[in-house]
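#lab-general

N.A. 3:47 PM
ok so I finally got the sequence cleaned up, no stray characters, all 195 residues accounted for. can someone with queue access submit it? mine expired

B.Y. 3:52 PM
send it over

N.A. 3:53 PM
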Amino acid sequence: MTGDHRDSTARRPRDAGRRRIRRGRVAHLALGVVLGAALFAAPALAAGGGGGHGGGHGSSAASAGDRPDKETVLPRTEADSVTGDYMQLSVMWLPVLQNRRSRYEAFTIRLTPHPDRRVLACFKAPWAHEAVMMALNEQPVSVQDKAHLDAAALKERLLARIATQVGPGLFTDVTLGSGIVEVDPEAQRLSEMCR
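B.Y. 4:20 PM
back already:
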C-alpha cells in the first residue's frame, strides 16, 4: 500500500502544474479574444460616431449641440478674412455675491480684438477667457454690480487682467453680459474659430 500511496502523491504535484499551465493558457486565450474584439470594434465605433457622445446613431457631436463641426471651422490663422467685430467666448459660470453668500450664474463675455492684431488675438482668446474667469473669481461681481456690468471700472479691470495674461494691445474692449446671450450672425464665425 505504501507503494500505491507514493505513486498517488508523486502524481499530485505534476497534475497541479498541468492545471496551472491550462489556466494560464485559458487566461491568455481570453485576453487575446478581448483584445481582438476591441481592435475590430474600435474602427467601427469611430466611423459610426458611437461611444455615447452626441446622441449616437452616427451623428457627430457637433450636430447634437450648438458647437460647430471642426471640419467647417476655419483655422485661427484666417481670423483676418472673416467678418465680425468681436469674439464671443464660451459661457462662464461665475460667482455672484449676495450679502455674504455667493451663487453661480451664467455670464457671456465678448472681446473686441485690435483690428491690426486679429490673428494673434484669436490665438490668445482661450487665455483671455481664463484671465476673465480668474479675475471674476478672485473679485466676484455682486448683485448690485450686475445692474452695471458695462461700468468703465469693471472693463478696465478685466482688460488689465487680460493684458497681463496674454500681452497688451490685443483687445480693445471687453463686454460682460448677464446670462446666456446668442452671438450675432456676423460675429458667429469669428467666435467659433477663436474659442
